[in-house]
Specification:
- It comes from Podospora aff. communis PSN243.
- The structure is a single chain.
- By secondary structure, this protein is of the alpha+beta class.
- The chain contains nine helices and nine strands.
- The strands form three sheets. A five-stranded mixed beta sheet has the order 2-1-8-9-6, with helices on both faces.
- Helix 4 runs antiparallel to helix 5, helix 4 packs across helix 8 and helix 5 packs antiparallel against helix 6.
- The relative contact order is 0.23.
Length: about 280
């Protein structure tokens, strides 16, 4: 039996991150069909592209057009075409803003998953900084933080396959990654914000998701958590760790078993190939 730890660094307003989620889910499903004894932990971690964004302050389509500048039409068409091959139809209408609250809920779901599985779950390999040697397949491109308002389609990263010594593990685990609470909450948030014109920064959108997936018993409890110092500190700590310890500069970015980094959006076969290489070692 092989154990896999998949840490996904993403922002909930990034369409490439949603497509990458579908790729990861498909790769895990395909792998477990061939190797049902293998186990996966998948944990979604925050990386806010715009950490200082305000709530409901921006037109969503205008934000994407500004981000990609003169190439915006081509980039959005490309996103739509690739998304369609994964069963996704993106919409760009409505308001948008800070993604901070959405990350708080995703982390809360991860903690609840960990609590429910801690009694019978064997810890996964610890997390380490990603290696630097490029590997097999170029991705379609990450949602890099723009250095100006006219950044083009972000430059691709690579698949890194050389292991390094592992660092600490923070205890978050997901025994059944495709049916976990965090996976369901992440899917609901990404779907609403990117395919149903919902405002990612609106608590009117986020609180019902939290309640529907059992993160709290009442709306008041959800709001107290979102306003808590604990929730804010945790998101900030995760962001700092991503930058300093892991070296994340763009999303999506995936680290497998704390040793192998997959940068940018990749197709399921790339993840599947990496899982097989790890299994063979």
């Amino acid at each position: 039996m092989t154990k896999y730890r998949v840490d996904v660094y993403a922002d909930t307003i990034c369409p490439w991150c949603y497509i990458n989620k579908r790729s990861i889910d498909t790769a895990i499903k395909n792998h477990q069909a061939q190797h049902p004894e293998d186990e996966f932990d998948v944990v979604w971690r925050p990386y806010m592209l715009y950490p200082n964004a305000k709530v409901s302050a921006y037109n969503k389509k205008d934000s994407f057009l500004l981000k990609f500048g003169p190439t915006a039409a081509d980039v959005l068409d490309r996103v739509q075409r690739v998304g369609s091959s994964h069963g996704l139809t993106f919409t760009w209408e409505g308001r948008t803003g800070s993604t901070r609250d959405s990350h708080k809920l995703i982390l809360l779901a991860a903690s609840q998953d960990a609590a429910s599985s801690s009694s019978n779950h064997t810890p996964s390999p610890p997390l380490s900084p990603p290696p630097t040697t490029s590997g097999d397949s170029p991705p379609l491109g990450p949602c890099a933080i723009p250095t100006s308002s006219h950044d083009a389609d972000p430059r691709p990263e690579s698949v890194d396959v050389n292991p390094r010594p592992a660092l600490r593990h923070d205890g978050l685990t997901t025994t059944h990654p495709l049916t976990s609470k965090q996976n369901a909450v992440t899917e609901a948030i990404l779907s609403g914000a990117l395919t149903r014109n919902q405002d990612i920064s609106s608590r009117e959108f986020l609180v019902p998701i939290a309640l529907a997936h059992g993160l709290a018993g009442t709306a008041e409890e959800v709001l107290r958590y979102l306003d808590s110092e604990e929730a804010n500190v945790r998101v900030d700590a995760e962001m700092a760790r991503a930058r300093v310890e892991i070296g994340v500069t763009a999303v999506p970015s995936v680290v497998v078993n704390g040793r192998y980094r997959v940068g940018g959006m990749q197709e399921p076969g790339v993840f599947g190939g990496l899982f097989e290489r790890i299994r063979a070692r």
